[in-house]
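Entry 12.
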Amino acid sequence: MILDRLKTMLEAIRTVTVIRDNKPVKIQQSSKPNYKIVNGEEVKMSMEEILNRQKAAKKAQLKNKGQQDNINDKRKASMETREELELDKENT
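Predicted 3D structure (tokens):
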């Protein structure tokens, strides 16, 4: 019973700083798998939504294959910004 409470406290909504257009943006994330944030609360995703997201990810992967060089350049710029702002230490 105590372990369940501890696990529930550890798995919670957390605020994470990410880089969007080379600017830091704070977003909320859930640490629980198959949960999403809706109006500031954790909500469990339906099985249909999980499967749809998996299908969409596969489609996006195929579409993005031709743009991989662009994606890598943008990712490199974001990583440099992360290093400058020392975000890796904050989000771990």
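Annotation: The first strand starts at residue 13 and ends at 20. The beta strands are 13-20, 23-30, 35-38, 41-44.
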